[in-house]
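Most newcomers find our protein records easier to grasp once they have seen one. A learned vocabulary of local backbone shapes supplies the integers on the structure line. Here is such a record, shown just as it appears in the course material:
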Amino acid sequence: MSRPDVLIVGGGIGGLGAALALSRQGLAVRLLERATAFGEVGAGLQLAPNCTRILDDYGLLDEARSLGVVPDAMVMRDALDGAELTRLDLRDLERRYGYPYLVIHRSDLHALLLRACERAGVELITDAHVTTYENTRTTGTDKRTGTDKRTGTGTGTGARVTLASGETHEAGVVIAADGLHSTARRLLVDDEPVSSAYVAYRGTVPAELERVRSVDLGEVVVHVGPSCHFVHYGLRGGELLNQVAVFESPKALAGQEDWGTPDELDAAFARTCDFVRDGLPFMWRDKWWRMFDRDPVMTWVHGRIALLGDAAHPPLQYIAQGAIMAIEDGWVLGEHVARHRTAEGSVDWDAALAAYEAVRPEHCRRVVTTSRAWGELWHLDGTAREQRNVLLRARDTYDYAFVDWLYGPTALTPDEEPPMFTPIPLTSADAGAASAGPVSGGVRAT
């Protein structure tokens, strides 16, 4: 096989998105997927305007709309009594940001990106388990960074990966989109995934069942409760109801290996309202997802090897930005390839990767840390729960102060990254008060 311009390791949503972004810049892209066939497991994904804006740039938004649902509202309820706490008007949100909030089946989004890569001429290879990464260098380069020891400029000629079979592949750059348990990440940091002790159960319910007929499929709803929450929304044009039940595992907290089991699921939601408990029989009981993230790292590039997606920034799912961040990573890298061409038209990879690393790690650090804090807020009990509820009920539906940093255009340079919100402590609320100042996702569990 001829040497491609780019090798991408990992055929998930992030890897396919990056392959598409780079092929659109006229580059020859080869993608290596470990599995014997392309595919995604799971159920629904929420795609906020910062993602649908990119899908529109790729010419894929109309197809994504046809496969998913554009809901009218996002609603937060208390899981114990079912009472509404706050909501976002998603139609008004689309007017504000210029692009819709879309929910779609994970496998449908993955298949959409796969078809786009096929049309773009991406070379797609399955059954390719990458075991090692290395930079290919000329003399005088630093062995860790792949840069010239004297000038700091890149002199490496590219990068190479080796498969479990012993086969090797080389390219001018390697993008490691190899997920939570990334092999490439070990080149940059010696860390491990961080367990949240929470576990997710998922399930979809056909629209003809009574469970779905009682639900407004125009709403994305999350019931937040003590050490648990329950999400539901429509998928595939309203053909399915997607449900996600998440809870903290006592077995995990006790250090047991076998945690997150179905018996814990039922016990975790015993105090919740009828609507939530009635949804539990529809969850898949033979598979569950333990929830991990990693501590943020600010270095993603090792010579001509760069991390992308969950390899760089696996988050907890509380602000629904995991797949979105991966798609943003690929788009940003593609844009910097376009900005960093030499006079002869070749890519200045050292400059493009430096620009990518200058902007993405800080944004993703914010998302990872905010996701952790938001999860703490969802799962409060006692007085803290009451304080949270008072503050959320007082929030104006059209207050976007706490999502502007997230849903606006994806930054290409550090100066384009918007400022974060100012958190509002729970202690500012009187649990017995009828109202409080408007707040949203910036309520802080302190």
About this structure: The CA atoms of residues 34 and 362 lie 29 Å apart.
